[in-house]
Structures
1.
Amino acid sequence: MKLIFEKSVKGRDGYSLPKDLFEDIDIKDCVPSYAIAEGKKELCEVSEVDVIRHFTKLSKFNYGIDDGIYPLGSCTMKYNPRINEKLASLDSFSCAHPLAPEETVQGSLQIMYELGNLLAEITGVAQYTMAPAAGAHGELTGILIMRNYFIDRNESRHKVLVPDSGHGTNPASAIMGGFELVETRSNEDGTVDIQQLAELMDEDTVGFMLTNPNTVGLYDPKIDEIQRIVHAKGGLLYYDGANLNASFGLFRPGDSGFDIVHLNLHKTFSTPHGGGGPGAGVIGVKEHLIPYLPTPIVTFEDNKYHLSDVGPKSIGKIRAFWSNFTVLLKSYAWILSMGADGLSEVTRASVINANYVLAKLKKYYRPAYDGYCGHECTLTGRDYKEYGIKTLDIAKRLMDYGVHPPTIYFPHFEPYAEETLMVEPPESESKETIDAFIDAMIKIAAEAKTDPDLLLTAPHNTRIKRADDVLAVKRPILHYDDELKIKDELGYTEADIDF
Amino acid sequence: MRYIPSTEEQKQEMLKQIGVSSFNELVKGIPEKVKPKGKLKIPDAISEAELADSILQIARKNYDFRLYKSLLGGGAYRHYIPEAEKFLLQREEFWTAYTPYQPELSQGTLQTIFEYQSYLARLTKMDVVIPSIYDGASATAEAALLSLRVTKRNKIIISAAIHPHYRETVKTYTSPHDTEIIELPHREAMVDLEKLKELLSGDDVASVIVQNPNFFGGIENVAGIAELVHDNKKTLLINTIAESMSLAVMKAPGEMGVDIVAGEAQSFGLSLNYGGPYNGYLAARKQYMRQLPGRIAGETVDTDGKRVFVMTMRAREQDIRRHKATSNICSNHGLNIAAASVYLSLMGTEGLYKLSLLNTKAAHYLEKILLKSGKFEKVYTYPFYNEFLLRSKSSISTLNQQLLKNNFIPPLAISQFYKGPLWENVLLFAVTEQLSRQDLDRVADILSS
């Protein structure tokens, strides 16, 4: 649709500013000539009405969780409660400046402190840091904690073990942490190959990053052996929290031997994804790793909450200020709403949902592995290759049924998990919505055989048709002035941009 | 349970269809040994009304900031946020959506990102914009890592007049990579150009990082700095910006020889939120396009030839390249892109310029009247944007209490970050359009009584 720049009309405005009562101050006396802009920088000239209509229209070109099921595997797209949004927008919280005197922000500090304690209980660790802004940020924090722990012990270790099924962020975080990456292979059951792990885990390795259930959605039955192998060599076990939704009431990572636990509050704890964030990737550690946490942490002494320095062994700061506070507040509210029994029910309902999808769809989309799954299941579209159909086509066709596709092509490792469709139907999806999803998937399975073209050209009912990713890379247009430079070459008609 | 729609009967039905008699059969994979013995020690569920009440009780332990005006900045600024923006952000299609992996269902998010990239490209006059890194500090750290990769050098010079949290974050991010961080001292609150020249003489520096306006509000001579830096062809100049509002009145980094801008966009329509989430960004020259970390939206066409938008240049990213990615970043602060995009659209060319002007002028007015009161003295003489340093002739703790009592959030005591006798009783004042001339006169009255 039309860009805001194409709706701009010279002389129109949408701002409302107090009158400039500082006629006695001349900008030329404030900003030196070497720094002052020559003229104004052109943004756009539109009214408030134009802005409201522009973005309202844009919003209608989006699909959100309130539009229907959003079964992205490993993403835990669950309902985002309204009350939590409301509470996070209270002025007392939203207008709190991060450097305001401690006595003025005791409420904000209390939320951070109490959430840390609740999460420590839920996951079985000693202390949380609220600093990491996202999952990958938390991973980097965890990796740096491992690094400082070994430096402090005068041990020089160079490697990190990551399963081949791990999220892409795991290996990338290991590299950012300055380590050499060693991948462990998954066995034919889709879980960790214990024998290989035992061979690879040595005294040059800081530890092992693992998620449980793992990325194909399976609980690792040998979790206890894994932790023994890692700890026997003095290593640390890191928990990737992307899949915590499958653990409430069933196990606590801390009790299973994990030393560092990372949580994605924007997945398990119900905060919205916002079209890519913001989230919060908080990190919890066992007692022996507390000195290495990023600084500061919130403490409670003399009946007051404080931002306290972690001390000389801390990895330091990983961001400006303290946390993604609003995300923390929403998670805190969600935990209080659910209570202990509610949390167990979250896991029970999501595990039942995923296994139900698996049971109903396994004869149409051959699963990567046999057996029951956790809160998500890994199906594949590999049986449709002979009809010229890829998983991508199945995903695009799903859109025509009004459903957001699941995660595709992740995890990927041959020969078990290729052409994957990873489906995660969280607890907030009812049996009816899941049945509708299953129905659509079964219909598409039939269409793939009888009318493959319908899939290859999908989607048909969406606002736009299939987008050309390759062209975007080959001919990068990354902002409006890039487009203007080659406007003639592009030759868009009015209908191409105004729809 | 209101967030779990399936009834127990439906769950039993699903279990039956799965072919098991109980839930426990599904989770047999979890060894008994690690299963918890008792119930979690967290409070029982409460109703929505009870929840609201209990959070309100906690909120009350904060000051009621609505009733306070603020003199506090230091990397977070209290600007007015138009109601139109707040309402638009409540469109669930924006805030409940995921990262726009499927462009056919995400044009709203993608076009919003593209428009935001366009705004920042014009404000910075740089070629490529990465619209969201977590915040200004992590954006600066990512820019530092990029400079190490591109130059294959390991020395970084960082200004002492950069936000202390940003400097700490750069140190943390670069710590695993055998990096030598050299602090470039300031001279009278501005980058010491003589010293910089000296430090650059080894021809082995990956990048020089300066903030503009700097932590003290000082307007650096970025073009002059760039000239020195680019005496060595390989060294990159990274320009950190904590108060992006300044871009509207100041010469663009792209016109002053900057290679990478690492900015914080909190001032573009984001609440203070006790420190986050805010939104960092990177803007760079074209040659670094494929080295940049983070998501970016690009223009393309669909099969009907319509102009559409997708996430592009994905071959840099962790979910595609795993350990060879330019960064591990995955989720960013996407919704804040929408906030800033709406904000900048509302402000427009004229509004943003006027607003930025107003901030500068109001700050200079406050400095003038505080100096006139005789209770303050200059620490240094330097050009500044909307923040400035003054030394109080009396104890600042008393002054701050006075301000709080009169519903002003006091300015930053700089000794929190900079140690030494020079910094005693020194305050960093920040002024935005939220303080009227009358408010500023009152501040001067309170502080001089």
2.
Amino acid sequence: MTEHSEVMQEETQIHSGAHVHRDDEGSKMAMWLFLFTELLLFGGLFLLYGSYRFEYADGFKAAAADMNSVIGAVNTLILLTSSLSVALSIAALQRKQKALALGMLWFTIICGLVFLVNKYFEWSHEIGMGIYPGGPALENMSNGEIIYFGLYYVMTGLHGLHVIVGMIFIGFVMFFISRDKITATNYQKLENAGLYWHLVDIIWIFLFPLFYLLH
Amino acid sequence: MANGSLAHEVSYLKYEGKHKGIAGWLLTLDHKRIGLMYLMAILLFFFVAMTLGILMRLEMLTPGETIMRPSTYNSVFTLHGVIMVFLFIIPAIPAVFGNFMLPIQIGAKDVAFPRLNLFSWYLYIAGAILAIVSLFTGGGAADTGWTFYVPYSIRSAQNVTMTTLAAFVLGFSSIVTGLNFVVTIHRLRAPGMTWFRMPLFPWALYATSWIQVLATPIIGITLALIILERLFGIGVFDASLGGDPILYQHLFWIYSHPAVYIMIIPAMGVVSEILPTFSRKDIFGYKQIAISSLGIALIGYLVWGHHMFVSGMSDASRVVFSLLTFLVAIPTGVKIFNWVATLYKASIKFSAPLYYVLAFIFIFSIGGLTGLVLGALSTDIHVTDTYFVVGHFHYVMFGGMGIMFFATMHYWFPKVFGKMYSEKIAIIACTVIIIGFNMLYFPFFILGYMGMPRRYYDYLPQFQGWHVLSTVGSWVLVSGIVFMFGNLLYALLKGPKAPMNPWGGTTLEWKVPSPPPLENFEEIPVVTGGPYVHDKPTYIMHPGKEGLNGNGVVKTANQENAI
């Protein structure tokens, strides 16, 4: 049991009549598989984006030119910082600095919240201008712009949903850390939460140039 | 561990932990109980969808309206498809027998994530409930066909939203099961069970699970887009807003063609279990069969375009997709030839499961050969959207996966329930099923070739003869199926007790009592050889007692600490 990743503890759970064991390596593998599925979920949307960008290059350019790339850049910075803080929380917990680890996770959640608040203002600004599916302004635009904004709402919306899920995930992990269920020797759940958060980050790293910069 | 010793002595059917009675099932984390709960649910939906199928055949007995209106017929074939595909064919073998047998066959006490396993069952039930609720709410059952093609699926006034949501939830359940199996196979093989000592059913499940994990998210997002399109009109599939309906078809089949292999690969895995058992010899070409499962899974990703030969694609793409489609025949042929070679010069013990497998090979070959007609560009155009296509996929889906599901039930019934059934009646029932099956579906090929289009409640009078034959065939088939289930049900209630190894099988599930104890094994066994060796033992069931643990026995690194 020297190497953490090879820890595999067996215990028989009599009350539920089943065999439960701890296998950190397996847990990490499952998390990576799950992240693959998430990538493919977004992959379908990226495929649509690619096809329609090819078909409506001009419409996409025109629509992207109206986007506020400053808010996009700020949000990118926020998410990248939050990825750093979640990674630092793992390092802190491994060094038995529980308070610091929790602090880093609080910081991550706050970053997620600020990201969503920015997104909220961005969306309400666009909706206020009548740019939403079926909205008065969008209806008069070209097909390329309609598709662009359709994809914009779906992709950033689905991403926003993942930010929320990631924050809930981290919230649970914080609860377990405070109860000493996740510790310096048993931190796979924290690492999984971190992996999930990095996924949220990496999806955004692709969304940002596709919707804000390519025009 | 006073109770712990009990857990590997008392049968999983009788063991009582903290929860008793019905809660002992609904809250169980045991892979065998979860497998049985899947079996109950899946059989229920099989009978529902079968009834819908019977009603459709009854409608087709005469031209014009026989028993239902055209709109009802549309809903009935949609539900028949959705229930059969998403609630029966996809989960049947992996979720029921994969759950039950995979951990035992690889020498583990359970799957890697028992709680996730139970969660997956509840997702399945949630999806099923959504599908049922969609029948009675919001303007009536979906009428789009199970493929939910746009633009009709975004225009239809019927309750398509909820039906697609149901398919979405069921897809999630499928992903969770697949993920669990991949990790289980990587992490929980018994010491000494190298990849190439694994039985072929786990190999098939491994290939299937990867498809479930890597393909299902695509249908998830596609169905989600249909829902969003219906709710908000985002335009991505709506031609009037610049969207491209053909892209929907691409995304749909990027999942749904690999899904065809989710349906058939586990069935092929069971064939590779049953044949060596009743041939009394090692399977021919073990490695080739194992690798060909992965080969089918891989090529299966690249052939989705053959569902869209007439939808509007460049000639270059069509030729490439057609060529790739023919390539699937190579790994499939590898399997079929190896199976037949296994039977060659074997001491065959003729029994019910083997009879079902032979029925499978016969029927599936017809399905496979008619697939070539559809894979070739010129002939496909002639029979696209006709009964020929319907005939083909019933031969491969029902004749392939369905018949193998029956075979699987007969092969593992003694192990799962600890009871024996009447083999004689099982064989008679199988004969009735084969006759009924061919009477029902073979006329489809002829009708399709003559030009009878699918999904119509009406037809020209000259088609009636074949339709009548087919409808009569459906009655024969159903009586065979009812007969078969009656036999199993009788065995469940009144059958004699099954011995530990009624068939003379060589894999690990036949080394534990029937039905297996809660913890499967008293001690994790040690594996010293291949799975289908008949002349010498390849498993050490009590390595601790025999003092072999850690004495030169091969172990995988990740199991070292577990022992």
